[in-house]
Amino acid sequence: MFMYIHTDMLNDLRDEFEIRDSSYIHDFRLCNPIEHTKGDTYFDMGKCYCNLMHHETIEDIIDTVNHEAKHAALRREELDDETEHIILRKMAWVENDFIDLSE
Hints:
The chain is an alpha+beta fold and 103 residues long. The protein is built from 3 helices and 3 strands. It has helices spanning 2-13, 58-75, 81-95; strands at 25-29, 39-42, 47-51. A 3-stranded mixed sheet has the order 1-3-2, covered by helices on one side.
């Protein structure tokens, strides 16, 4: 169901936005032995990881995969880390209907 809605939404927006392919590899690992994070994006290697040990639910894992994918997409804009996280936070507010942009 989600894929159908997502695909339908992409088809509706195809004329408004440019869709780019990603060269990033998204992968899962049990944990990051160096840091205790839910996910990591390594821009120099083109890899995104979801560290499974630090998640409690499948929804949490999906949120992390989406978050790391957004990091990879925003990296194309050459933003600093602080600005990138501000944008990600505001995107999450919109996705969760905390902010209404229709006005």
